[in-house]
Each structure stands twice: as structure tokens, then as C-alpha cells.
Design brief:
- Chain A: It holds the Pfam family Cyt_bd_oxida_II.
- Chain A: Keywords: Cell membrane, Membrane, Transmembrane, Transmembrane helix.
- The complex is a heterodimer of chains A (about 250) and B (about 375).
- Chain A has about 250 residues and is mostly helical.
- Chain A has helices at about 1-20, 20-35, 35-70, 70-80, 80-100, 105-135, 145-170, 180-210, 215-225, 225-240.
- In chain A, about 60% of the residues are buried.
- The longest helix of chain B has about 40 residues, at about 5-40.
- The radius of gyration of chain B is 22 Å and the shape is globular.
- The chains are: A mainly alpha (about 250), B mainly alpha (about 375).
Chain lengths: ~250, ~375
């Protein structure tokens, strides 16, 4: 049972990197590729239907951390206190930018929130690199080690590239050059790679600190029956908002 | 102030802001689902516009519920690692279910509903908003389950220096849960109903051209508020059977008393004034300022209720098992908590004010040029892609 829950935990972390990675990447690219307001609107519209279904992977991951690894939850989050606070604020500001940017007319309003989306995405992407290093290096190590900074830059670069291949799947002229869907799978897998490596290294430690079997049984009975529904809901999102369906004509809510 | 007080203040501030938006979400989600279903059956243009207008209010409100919820979830690990160390094997389970099942599905289906206008078949689209409602209520249930465990740790025993889950059934039938959950749901319906009433009163008082639209909305709101306040009051009193002695003797007695007085008074206004006059109320313009003035009060009462419940638990984090002082993360310094308190309070406070301004503007603008559900032919130029 510990193995099943480790697999769930690993899938959630890797899934977050692969599925939310391109949303953060698009956010990172907004000041670079979206020089005009219209360009940025197109970029946000491209990722908008996927953001809500992507960021929940991290919400679910944190819940699983609490439920399955309660002994580590406080240790990891508290150990990275300033970093977690900064990443949370980045996440909050990025989300607020998406929800708010079209709620008022006015160029300055939208430009401000577009900047917040970019800054929030940068804080989260770079923060993930630092966090992965700090978790792998063990307690008491500052994330601001040269290796941590390097990993921060690497994750940021991977997310940006993943976002770029995502934008490439849109119809010609929407953003970037058209690219086949296979590229997105490759960039998604590479975006998830840093998380997978750290997970592989930390697997024995995580398994050792699993919650007792009575807790895991309750979780299994309550959660696992819904797993097919959760997968189906995610697949439904991808089928509905597939870029090939000519749905880009409909104005975006974000 | 010491780190403990600051950490409690941080949880109270973020939790308070969170619930202001969540309580409205719990009320508006079923309202929007009902109106959307009505449109799917009738095909009337008025029902469509009502779905899009109130849906847009619901969605603007939802944004703050999400971002404050993110901060809440991580705060357990940041400030209260003593809780997960001592009782994580028990307390973590409902939180995991809330995030892993309920919120995961809620957010996914909400994305499908918001962006699915014009893309999903009609009845599948209706199904999405009902699934959002169902999972939102499941979320509320698991959070209340976790909170009720803190109020009354049923179903768990202390083994060594940790608590262990022995009887999940006892956790589900916790006497601190069975009346408080419907109480919270009732408060949500009541708040959502009163927001419809207050916003409609504002529009009707200004003699807006949308008389039919806001007359219908006000009546729906009055019905929902009546159902909500009845549930809230009934299950509010029902809770007293299961409360530990002395819980509300101290500081918690003040918010509790205010909430009960306010709730009783409000139930008289709703059940003996608004409900009997439901046919004519939209025309009685003299009553509209009163209805507008009443709109913020359900939010105040909801916060008072939470204050009573949470202050009444002090000094315990888990009743008679773990104190809040022992639940504090060891090594949390005043500097750390001050910095994060300022950061979260300033950012979430500004966003909350912004969100309310946006909701007020959406009400003032009325049901025209709505972004939610806009097709490319009917969208205002400023909003088109």
C-alpha cells in the first residue's frame, strides 16, 4: 500500500511539472513573445482552459503530502519557509493576474496583470528548482547554493521551452511556428525530468515515512475509487480544448 | 506579540478572508446550476442571460476563494507542523481527500464550465456546473470533518506520542460535525440568496431597464435566503447538544451571542417580511435600501460564527489533546512569521478589496457585454480576442 501511495505522490508531482509547466512557461514567455497586447491576449487564451485543471495537481500533491507523509509535511515545508512563502505569493499573484486581467477595460489594467502573471510564473518556476535542490540536499542546507540556482535556471528554461512548444500547437499565426503534438509530449517529459530524478532519489526515504496502514487504508477506500473519474475529467479537458477543433475563435474568459 | 499570537493571527486573517469568498461560492454554485438547468430546459433568452450574469459574479468571487485556499493549505506545514507531527495520521486524511478528490475535480470541472461555453453539448455543460456544485459541497464536508476532529477528536487514540486513526466511522459521525456541516451549508445558501436580493434591489431602485431580469432574480434570492436561514438557525441550535461544557464561557461568548442575536433577527426579517411579500417586493422601492443594507450582514454573521467556534476551542488545537502552543512549528521565529504575515495580509487583502470592487462593478454594469459565455458574434470589442 505504501508503494501505491508513493506512485500516486510521484504521479502528482511529475504531472504537475508536465501539465502546469507549460502554463508557467507561457507566463514566462509573455514579456518576450507577447510584445503587443493582442499577442499577450492570444497567449493567455491559449493556456486559459488548461490552467485550472493543471494547477490542481499541486494542490492535490500538498494534500497527499499531508495525508500520506504527515511526518515529512511539516519538516519539508517548514524547512523551506522563506522559499515556500515566496512561491505561494508568486502563485497567488499569477492566478490573480489570470482571473482579473479581463475584468476591467483599460490598457494599463491589463498590462499590469500581465506583468504579474510573468513575475508570478518566474517566482514559481525558479522556486521549484531551488526547492528540488534543497529537498534533495537535506535539512539545513540553504537553497541559494550555486547548484540550487543552476537548477532554478534549468527548471525555468525547461518550463519556458515547454510553454513554447505548447504555443506551437496552436493554429499558424496564433503564436510561434506550428509544431506537431509529439513535440509537446517530449517537452512535457523533459519538464518533468528534474522532479522525477529527485523522486527516484528520495523514494526509500519517502516509503520509510509513510503514514500507518490504518490511515492509508482509509485513504485508499475513499480516494482510489475516484481515480478513474479524475483521469476521465482531465482527459475530457484535453479533448474539449484541443486546438485542432477551431475553438480559438471563441473569446477567452481569462 | 510572540510568534504564537502572530501565527494565530495569520491563520485567522487568511481563514477569515477565505471564508468570506467560500460562503458565497457555496450559495451561488447551486443557484447558478439551477438557473443554468432552467435555461437548458426552457431555452428562454432571459434564463440564459441570468445564467451568464450570476455565473460571472460567481466566477469573479471564486478567484479569491482559490488563491486564499492555497495559502490556507500550506500554512499547516509552515506554522503548525506540530499538528501534523502529533495528529497528521488522522487529521491529514480528510485534508488529503479534500484536495485530492473534491477540489481536484471541482477545479477541473469549473474550467470545463467556464471555457466550455459554445464548445460543450448543452446538457454536458449543465452537468459540469452540477459537478462543480457537488464537489464544492464535498470540499466543505471534508474541511468540516477535519475541523470537527479538532473540536472533538473522535475516532482516534493516542499511541505513544502520536495520535492514530482507529475508527473512521466515528470520525464521520462526530457530534461536532453532523449539525455544523448543514449549518455551514445553510449559511452559504442564505448568503448567496441575500446577494441576489441585494444586487437586484440596487438595480431595481435605479429603475434600470432590466426590470424583468432583476425581478426574477430577487424572487429566486428570497426563496434561497429563506431556505438558507431556516437551515442555519435550526442546525445552529442543534449543535448545542454536542458542545463541550464551558466552551463558550470565555471570549468566544461574545461573537457567539452576536451571531445568535443577529441570526434570529435576520430570520424574522426573511421569513415574516421578505418571503410573504415575495410577489410585490421587487416593486416596493422604499424597501430596496433596506435590502441593500442587509446584504453584507450574512458575511459578518458567518465570520462571527467561525470566531465563536475557533476561539471557543482555545487553548486547544485538538480538544484536550494538543495545545496550539505545542502545535506551533518548533523554531518558528517572530521575524519569520511577521514577514509572511505582512506578505499574505497585504497581498490577499488588496486582492480581496479588488475582487469586491470588480463584483460591485459587474452588478452596476448589469447583464450586458458579459465575458462569461460570450460567443464571437456577441462579444464587446474590448473583450474579443
Amino acid at each position: 500500500m505504501e508503494l501505491i501511495w508513493f506512485a500516486v505522490f510521484a504521479l502528482l508531482l511529475a504531472g504537475y511539472f508536465a501539465l502546469e509547466g507549460f502554463d508557467l512557461g507561457v507566463g514566462l514567455l509573455m514579456p518576450v513573445l507577447g510584445r503587443t497586447q493582442e499577442g499577450r491576449d492570444r497567449m493567455v487564451a491559449a493556456m486559459a482552459p488548461f490552467v485550472l485543471a493543471g494547477e490542481v495537481w499541486l494542490v492535490a500533491l500538498a494534500g497527499t503530502l499531508f495525508g500520506v507523509y504527515p511526518a515529512l509535511e511539516g519538516e519539508i515545508l517548514f524547512g523551506l519557509y522563506p522559499l515556500v512563502v515566496a512561491m505561494l505569493l508568486g502563485w497567488v499573484v499569477r492566478d490573480a493576474g489570470l482571473w482579473f486581467r479581463r475584468r476591467l477595460d483599460g490598457a494599463a489594467w491589463r498590462r499590469f496583470w500581465d506583468l504579474m502573471i510573468a513575475l508570478g510564473s518566474l517566482t514559481l518556476s525558479f522556486g521549484w528548482g531551488l526547492a528540488l535542490y534543497a529537498v534533495a540536499a537535506g535539512p539545513g542546507v540553504s537553497p541559494l547554493h550555486p547548484v540550487g540556482l543552476l537548477l532554478g535556471a534549468l527548471v525555468t528554461g525547461l518550463f519556458a521551452w515547454h510553454g513554447w512548444t505548447f504555443l506551437g500547437r496552436r493554429p499558424p499565426g496564433a503564436a510561434g511556428v506550428p509544431r506537431p503534438g509529439r513535440d509537446l509530449l517530449v517537452s512535457g517529459a523533459l519538464a518533468a525530468l528534474p522532479a522525477v530524478v529527485v523522486l527516484a532519489g528520495g523514494a526509500p526515504y519517502l516509503l520509510e515515512h509513510s503514514a500507518p496502514s490504518s490511515t492509508l487504508s482509509v485513504l485508499s477506500v475513499m480516494v482510489l475509487p475516484f481515480a478513474p473519474v479524475m483521469v476521465a475529467a482531465q482527459v475530457w479537458v484535453w479533448r474539449t480544448f484541443h486546438p485542432g477543433k477551431g475553438t480559438d475563435r471563441i473569446p477567452s474568459f481569462f | 506579540m510572540e510568534a504564537l499570537d502572530l501565527a494565530r493571527l495569520q491563520f485567522a486573517v487568511t481563514g477569515g478572508i477565505h471564508f468570506l469568498f467560500v460562503v458565497l461560492t457555496l450559495g451561488l454554485a447551486p443557484l447558478v446550476a439551477i438557473i443554468h438547468t432552467r435555461w437548458a430546459r426552457s431555452g428562454r433568452a432571459l434564463d440564459l442571460r441570468m445564467t451568464r450574469f450570476w455565473g460571472q459574479i460567481y466566477v469573479i468571487n471564486y478567484a479569491l476563494g482559490i488563491v486564499t485556499g492555497l495559502v490556507m493549505e500550506f500554512q499547516f506545514g509552515l506554522s503548525w507542523s506540530g499538528l501534523s507531527h502529533y495528529a497528521g495520521d488522522v487529521f491529514g486524511a480528510p485534508l488529503a481527500m479534500e484536495t485530492l478528490v473534491a477540489f481536484f475535480l471541482e477545479s477541473t470541472f469549473l474550467g470545463l464550465w467556464i471555457f466550455g461555453w459554445g464548445r460543450l453539448p448543452k446538457w454536458l455543460h449543465v452537468a459540469c456546473i452540477w459537478l462543480v456544485t457537488a464537489t464544492a459541497y464535498a470540499s466543505a464536508f471534508f474541511i468540516m470533518l477535519a475541523n470537527s476532529f479538532l473540536q472533538n477528536p473522535a475516532g482516534a487514540v493516542v499511541k505513544g506520542d502520536r495520535m492514530e486513526l482507529v475508527d473512521f466511522g466515528a470520525m464521520l459521525t462526530n457530534k461536532a460535525l453532523i449539525f455544523s456541516f448543514p449549518h455551514v451549508i445553510g449559511a452559504g445558501l442564505f448568503t448567496g440568496g441575500m446577494v441576489l436580493v441585494g444586487a437586484s434591489a440596487y438595480r431595481l431602485r435605479r429603475r434600470s431597464e432590466e426590470t424583468e431580469f432583476f425581478t426574477g432574480s430577487m424572487r429566486v434570492g428570497v426563496v434561497m435566503a429563506s431556505i438558507g436561514i431556516s437551515l442555519t438557525v435550526a442546525f445552529g441550535y442543534g449543535q448545542f447538544g454536542g458542545v463541550q461544557e464551558g466552551k463558550f464561557n470565555g471570549a468566544a461568548g461574545v461573537p457567539l451571542g452576536l451571531m445568535m442575536e443577529g441570526g434570529n433577527l435576520f430570520s424574522f426579517v426573511v421569513l415574516f417580511f421578505m418571503l410573504p411579500l415575495i410577489r410585490s417586493l421587487p416593486r416596493r422601492r422604499w424597501a430596496h435600501p433596506l435590502l441593500m443594507a442587509l446584504t453584507p450582514l450574512p458575511f459578518v454573521l458567518a465570520i462571527l460564527g467561525w470566531l465563536a467556534r475557533e476561539v471557543g476551542r482555545q487553548p486547544w488545537m485538538i480538544w484536550e489533546r494538543l495545545t496550539v502552543a505545542d502545535a506551533l512549528s518548533p523554531g518558528l521565529t517572530t521575524g519569520m512569521i511577521t514577514t509572511s504575515l505582512i506578505g499574505f495580509t497585504v497581498v490577499l487583502g488588496l486582492l480581496a478589496v479588488t475582487d469586491y470592487v470588480l463584483i460591485a462593478r459587474a452588478v452596476r454594469r448589469g447583464p450586458r457585454d458579459l465575458a462569461l459565455g460570450a460567443a464571437d458574434d456577441q462579444c464587446a470589442p474590448a473583450l474579443s480576442l
